[in-house]
Amino acid sequence: MKNIRSIAGLVATMAWVSSVPAFAADAAADVAQVATQAASIPALRQSAAAAAGYKATDLEIKSTAHQITITVVNSKLNAGLPAGRSNEASKIIQALEKSIAGKLEFGQVMMMHLDYVSRQGGKLKIIQGFDFNKSPSGPFVPHAT
Fold first, then answer.
1. Running DSSP on this structure, what letter comes out for residue 54?
2. Residues 72-113: pLDDT tens digits?
3. Which of 1, 59, 95, 143 has the fewest beta carbons under 10 Å from its own?
4. In whole angstroms, what is the distance from residue 145 CA to residue 132 CA?
5. How many CB atoms lie within 10 A of CB 46?
6. Per-residue pLDDT tens digits for 21-76
7. How many domains does the chain have?
8. What SS3 state is found at 139?
């Protein structure tokens, strides 16, 4: 019985060890992809800001290999109704969708997340957040639960 557990443990360890390079390779590729995306961030910020009538400095955009995160800081809609923010978020996402279309560095992006925040001094308050997932047909659609 003891030998069977030892063999099972050895097999499990060997399987795990052999998979490590695959994870490492994916992580390295993701890092390289994010570095390539970084050059496009200023243009994305400008496109998103123009779509919603903001200055580029009012938006922050970060990306990973699979997600773009947009933060709208001190929006004129923070005090408004959620429906207004939802409509504006859709406009921003559509603008970004057009901006990244056909760009290989954004080909694996499957989600865009947008937050409306209030930032006063060192304090940050999230007003509302939205998730948009890439649909099988291509466009990003609001996540519904």
1. -
2. 999 999 999 999 999 999 999 999 999 999 999 999 999 999
3. 1
4. 12
5. 16
6. 444 447 777 888 888 898 999 999 999 999 999 999 999 999 999 999 999 999 99
7. 1
8. coil
Query: pTM value?
Result: 0.79
Cβ burial of 132 (10 Å; 0-12, 13-18, 19+) is buried
Which residues lie across from 72 on neighbouring strands? 59, 116
In a domain, 29, yes or no: no
Q: How far apart are CA 99 and CA 113, in angstroms?
A: 16
Question: Residue 65's domain spans which residues?
Answer: 39-142
CA dist 86 and 99 (Å) reads: 20
Domain containing residue 105: CATH number: 3.30.70
Dump the DSSP string for 16-81.
Answer: HHHHHHHHHHHHHHHHHHHHHHHTTHHHHHHHHHHHHT--GGGEEEEE-SSEEEEEEES-TTTTS-
The span from the CA of 144 to the CA of 86, in Å, is 12
